[in-house]
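Ops channel
N.P.: pipeline sanity check, posting one input/output pair.
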């Protein structure tokens, strides 16, 4: 049941009418603070997750080449 419902819900969310600002409404000036807070909360949660740390320490070193420059900068760019 859930496998059939998920694509429909995803489609409905992707193509729903988000509304537009009317003539008397001012458009929003910048990103929604709730979304910005949710982004940073997810970023901190992801960075402090031990599984992510283990994955990055096991997976990323194979793509780092010491001959190309600073290793720490390469790690930051990759992950």
């Amino acid at each position: 049941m859930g496998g059939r419902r998920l694509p429909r819900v995803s489609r409905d969310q992707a193509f729903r009418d988000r509304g537009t600002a009317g003539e008397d409404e001012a458009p929003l000036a910048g990103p929604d603070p709730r979304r910005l807070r949710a982004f940073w909360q997810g970023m901190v949660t992801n960075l402090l997750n031990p599984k992510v740390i283990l994955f990055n320490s096991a997976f990323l070193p194979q793509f780092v080449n010491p001959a190309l420059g600073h290793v720490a900068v390469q790690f930051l760019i990759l992950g």
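N.P.: looks fine end to end. The CA atoms of residues 5 and 11 lie 10 Å apart.
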